[in-house]
Specification:
seven-stranded antiparallel sheet; two-stranded antiparallel ribbon
Length: about 230
């Protein structure tokens, strides 16, 4: 599979707590609630995105953050010389605020001792070929799509996130994509009916699933999408 094809796939696709759910209509309150659920060393903030609305992002300290419209200097410095940089920096450099599905990337090089673990916020138009009302069915459909494109799907099912059940798919990316490194990518898919879009949250990590599970799920726990009834990003 060519690097270009897989890059396109990941850019489009890239996309657990008993705590009470955040107020879906108030991003500032959601950020406070998510902060209370996170361990020490993590912080939340509200990201104001002109295209998709205000959402909550969780960031470990230290970390490098890229938001759509930014240059990639900060994350390039943090990931210099890595296969992650070779794959992702060209894609993010080319991202357009008006058209890109990737809205934010957080790069953590501390959680796995110098290895790159990244967290991605993505927003995609609803696909009429996907069943967004049934998380289990959605996971099955996405698993089939990813497997058909050469990704080694390792997990396909549902998980509890905040107060709802969401689809979860995890896969290993072939070594030729990341210059010889196998990457393990987890994605959680969060449909929204008003406006009709699908948010997804991605954790791209080395092929060490057990080691990366905690930072991945902590980042997911701190995420909150823009309120329903907000801007239509399509």
């Amino acid at each position: 599979m060519s690097r270009l094809i897989v890059r396109s796939l990941l850019v489009v696709a890239l996309g657990l707590s008993a705590c009470s759910a955040a107020d879906p209509d108030d991003p500032e309150r959601a950020a406070e609630d998510r902060q209370a659920a996170l361990p020490a060393g993590w912080s939340t903030s509200v990201v104001s995105d002109d295209r998709v609305g205000d959402y909550v992002l969780a960031v470990p300290d230290p970390a490098a953050v890229w938001l759509i419209g930014d240059d990639t200097d900060q994350i390039a410095e943090a990931t210099a010389g890595t296969s992650w940089a070779g794959f992702w920096l060209p894609a993010l450099d080319a991202a357009s605020s008006e058209r890109s599905n990737v809205r934010a990337v957080v790069v953590d090089t501390e959680a796995l001792a110098g290895e790159v673990v990244s967290f991605h916020v993505n927003v995609n138009p609803q696909d009429p070929g996907l069943d967004l009302d049934d998380a289990e069915q959605l996971a099955d459909q996405l698993q089939g799509r990813f497997a058909a494109q050469g990704l080694d799907v390792r997990v396909s099912g549902t998980t509890r996130w905040q107060d709802r059940t969401v689809a979860e798919v995890a896969f290993r990316v072939p070594p030729e994509v990341f210059d010889g490194e196998i990457r393990y990518v987890r994605q959680w898919f969060i449909p929204q009916s008003d406006p009709p879009v699908m948010w997804s949250f991605t954790c791209d990590a080395p092929d060490q699933p057990e080691a990366s599970d905690t930072p991945c799920r902590t980042a997911l726990e701190g995420f909150w999408p823009a309120p329903s009834g907000g801007r239509d990003p399509v």
